[in-house]
Design goal:
heterodimer, A: 112 residues, mainly beta, seven-stranded mixed beta sheet, four-stranded antiparallel beta sheet, B: 113 residues, five-stranded antiparallel beta sheet, 58% strand
């Protein structure tokens, strides 16, 4: 069974530039999550989608972060403009409704 | 909202000893408590989970206990091996699709041969 796919794996940008991350969940998984994991900390939820609708985006910094899940499958997370404190691993996860979360390998962002 | 506290932040044990990691949660509506293992540079992977209708669950060398009254749950690893070395995260989630998974800050477990 194919897992959660994410790209790119690594990205280095200057502050104030923009970046986009892509996620393809496991086939059939209705729920998709984006988490931010800063080094040495636990994953922090940014946004949760159920199909193509947003369930929870209360911790998404909406002045600079945006996410969409068109057609209820793939999702993109965008940061514009990036700040130094956005350096982190961005983890995408999916689940079949409320079951176990399966994580992708993550996209490591370094903002210089 | 939910808040999950995890202790200790680091744990070092000798191979063959047991390791215990403890978590507390704040939201009494939480009913699903998974544990994830994350090796360096890898994705978090589920190792065991427990739902609020049971007090204990075991899978070979790992077990999880849940005390709903006290709102805490623990991970127990027996006969530790060097390959158990990793960061372990507990998490808590509310019932239903509206609930999202809130993670603790993690415990770095080192098993010395």
């Amino acid at each position: 069974e194919a897992g959660v796919a994410q790209s790119p794996r690594y990205k280095i940008i200057e502050k104030r530039q923009s970046v986009a991350f892509w996620c393809n969940p496991i086939s059939g998984h209705a729920t998709l999550y984006w988490y931010q994991q800063i080094l040495g900390q636990g994953p922090k939820l940014l946004i949760q989608f159920q199909n193509n609708g947003v369930v929870d985006d209360s911790q998404l910094p909406k002045d600079r972060f945006s996410a969409e899940r068109l057609k209820g499958v793939d999702s993109t997370l965008k940061i514009q403009p990036a700040k130094l404190e956005d350096s982190a691993v961005y983890l995408c996860a999916s689940s079949f409704y409320t079951g176990e979360l399966f994580f992708g390998e993550g996209s490591r962002l370094t903002v210089l | 909202g939910e808040n999950v506290e995890q202790h200790p932040s680091t744990l070092s044990v000798q191979e063959g000893d047991s390791a215990v990691i403890k978590c507390t949660y704040s939201d009494s509506a939480s009913n699903y408590f998974p544990w994830y293992k994350q090796e360096l540079g890898k994705r978090p992977q589920l190792i065991i989970d427990i739902r609020s209708n049971v007090g204990e669950k075991k899978d070979q060398r790992i077990a999880v206990t849940l005390n709903k009254t006290a709102k805490h749950f623990s991970l127990h690893i027996t006969e530790t091996q060097p390959e158990d070395s990793a960061v372990y995260f507990c998490a808590a989630k509310r019932r239903g699709s509206q609930g999202n998974l809130i993670f603790g800050k993690g415990t770095k477990l080192s098993v010395k041969p």
